[in-house]
Amino acid sequence: MEERQKGVVQEEAATFQYTAVEKLLGYEFKDKKLVEEALTHESLFYPLMPEVSYHRLEFMGDAVLSCLVALEVFKSYPSLDPGHLTRLRAANVDKEKLARIAVNHHLHLYLRHKTTRLPEQIEDFMKAMHEYPIHSNGLLDPPKVLANIVESLLGAIFIDSNSSLDAVWKVFKKLAEPLISPETLGKHPMTELHELCQKLGKQVSIKKDGWAENGKVEVCIDGKLVGSATYVHKKEIAKNRAAKVALDWLQGGKADINLHTSPED
Question: CATH for 189-260, among 3.40.50.10190, 3.40.50.1260, 3.40.190.10, 3.30.160.20?
């Protein structure tokens, strides 16, 4: 169907495709209504109060997933200290990793919603993913709903399977492959910039005063402007992108010190 190819299942669909979702997950639900609940955004019922939405299942899935991934990295990397284990767990359950899972396995195609800009935002994220095959480490800003539906589906499996952690892990491990490992775990640009400047004996300053007005963050090294980025939706993303430009400059790249992202991005 054309609309489904664009990444949205309209409210007018005659029946919810439980079987298709189960096939993507590799899990057959006893209570099919849990699938529908896990993929229903509250906007579907706007302006009325939502009859049902994924938020409760998302809450459950978030808690279960954090526990499961913590256990996995703890067992898999016995020599890692708690700080590195925390970073590894976070990278495997953060918004970007889960959003990648949603689009890579086409789960977003079954989301029921009435958010008009969401299909465009998802498409933009999917295009941007190609530049960062594993993870962007804070440079991309995927729609949060993508991560939410992964968590809500995992929560639905947990409830449907009578609280089976094994059932949830089996599904997540298949969807999330490859899991981010110590070898593929990158650093956020801001962290990398501070570490490099400390090593080189240089002073870093971040100017965020103008972000509220125009979404711009600037990075100076030893008082010289070496990178800036504009992203009006989230200060942290603008800061990371400005740091990435500064890193490229510091490492001898030819990056433009001004990285502008349109307000509509």
Answer: 3.30.160.20
- Cα(97)–Cα(179) distance, integer angstroms: 9
On whether the 2-176 domain is CATH 1.10.1520.10, my answer is yes
Measured distance CA(221)–CA(237) in Å, rounded? 19
Tens of pLDDT, residues 205-256: 999 887 878 888 999 999 999 989 989 888 889 999 999 999 998 887 544 5
Beta partners for 217?
A: 229
Domain definitions of the chain by residue range: 2-176, 189-260
Residue 186 to residues 7, 40, 171: CA-CA distances in angstroms? 29, 33, 25
Helix axes 144-160 and 95-104, enclosed angle (nearest 10): 80
pLDDT digits (tens, 9 = 90+) for 145-196: 999 999 999 999 999 999 999 999 999 999 999 999 999 998 889 999 999 9
Torsion of CA 241, 243, 249, 250, to 10 degrees: -160
Residue written as token pair 């009435």: 114
The whole-model pTM stands at 0.84
CA angle 265, 9, 264 (to 5 degrees): 10
What's the pLDDT at 244?
92
For 213-226, the three-class secondary structure string (H helix, E strand, C coil) is HHCEEEEEECCEEE
